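Do me a favour: review this protein, sequence plus structure tokens, and tell me how the chain folds. Record follows.
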Amino acid sequence: MRNLVIIPTYNEIDNIAAMIEKVFSLSEPFDLLIIDDGSPDGTADVVKERQKTHPDRLHLIERSGKLGLGTAYLAGFRWALEKGYDHIFEMDCDFSHNPDDLVRLSQAAEAGADLVIGSRYITGVNVVNWPMKRVLMSYYASAYVRLVTGMPVRDATAGFVCYSADLLRKMDLDDVRMKGYGFQIEMKYTAWKLGFRVEEVPIVFTERTLGASKMSGGIFREAFFGVMKLRFRSIRPRKER
């Protein structure tokens, strides 16, 4: 199985080098695709330097500016499918997602899950160093998604996930409408509605120690109202072209 980890970046110079080396040190092989949205701090330059050491496993897409988390992942998904990867992972660059857990997500995918979610809430609340306000907001956001959509996922907003290539090929990626926080919800909902096997694997989420968070009120508003619209959308597999 060929595994690709997609990491979108914007001003992650404090974390990117350590993340690259950590992923490449894991017991299972994972390739990396960094999608950098024009970071002025030189994040992409660090990636290019590391490509000299990992020319076949480290890849970079540079974009002209901050175009949104969802559009970065969609670009990465299309690239991964063109290159023939079997499992495609989403992960943050700031070590809030423990790279060691990539192995556990990969094992669940190899056992037959089409969408594997690194879940903060499947065994309680496994979040470290978040203020209580943010914990409650995140936890109840997932509860809100379950209530509105009926989707039986405990961590609907999780950003640490693995997709099978078969699932991504069946999704109509051109029809994905939410670009920020809601993108994660929409992708999970689409997979569930299409009848694919969804599994949650417990992880511990640790707040970043270096760099700045990219969350904003606008991102949450998009998700809140977007979930309402999801409930009434007709989800169909991608038409063969």
Summary: The radius of gyration is 17 Å.
